Amino acid sequence: MVTIKDVAExxxxxxxxxxxxxxxxxxxxxxxxxxxLKAVAELDYQxxxxxxxxxxxxxxxxxxxxxxxxxxxxxxxxxxxxxxAAQYGMQVIATEGHHQAxxxxxxxxxxxxxxxxxxxxxxxxLSDWQLAGLTSHCPSIVVNRSIPELESHCLWxxxxxxxxxxxxxxxxxGHSRIGWIGRDEDIADNRDRFxxxxxxxxESGIPRQNAPVESAPATAAGxxxxxxxxxxxxxxxxxxxxxxxxMAAGCLRALHERNLRLPDQFSVVGxxxxxxxxxxxxxxxxxxxxxxxxxxxxxxxxxxxxxNSAFDADHCFKPxxxxxxxxxxxxxxx
Length: 334
Hints:
Layout: H1 4-11, H2 15-23, H3 30-43, H4 49-56, E1 61-66, H5 72-87, E2 91-96, H6 101-113, E3 118-121, H7 128-135, E4 140-143, E5 154-157, H8 159-172, E6 178-183, H9 188-203, E7 213-216, H10 220-233, E8 239-242, H11 245-257, E9 267-269, E10 286-288, H12 291-307, E11 316-317, E12 320-322
Parallel strand pairs: 1-2, 1-3, 3-4, 4-5, 5-11, 6-7, 6-8, 8-9
Antiparallel strand pairs: 10-12
């Protein structure tokens, strides 16, 4: 069995340096840290989490709460968290909350019971005061949400600007009959993206009532259902803005079934830029939500909290337009 002494000899550092790198208890020079991580990988060293917990009061575990493992958006978040955690010699325990307050609270309490060193939380159903109470038990970072009492421990995305950029892009391509398909849950992400959508329309002189709306679950099936209803009621639309890429994927199928050629007969834009957008036909124009980067930054901040180090004060991440093939400039039509 490989021991910590073996790793120290391979990396040519002290055993205490190995412990500092793996436990994240202090800053270590970059060259020594790299040597340790390389030796750990080469020797396939597996430190005992039980021993680490007894000696250093650490388990080496980060607890992660997300909405739904099956959603590509959260798969990308998990990937960012796990990859960065590995750089600090930590592991991740992930669980689901399904945007239900009771499930979110139960999941967080379960992670605390596992003695996680820290928590990364994506929870939309719990109230601010509930989250403040639960996160008081260990270092925590809340993602995709700004809580005044915890703002220094929050990372969030400008959803209003994301909705605005998507609508502004469609308007700039000559579309004035634009429908919106949103999620059927009353959560801040949906409200903010829709607010940005309406703001862009208003700036272009298009009355809000001229933009029809349908709601459904924020899935591909939901996008398909919402689009089908929308087009039945409003066959004169030329474009649809979807709450997220999953709904946009369902929207594309509904359009194909109606024999609407994309993008020359109809245009679609989503939000999130999850990996599937590149593999749809046509490739999906969308707004990038840098969720993998946010996951990585959350781990950086967790490490800083555990080691009493300073971290970047930037908390809000901005959207970016990703142009692909699902939007056509109808002003070019003869």
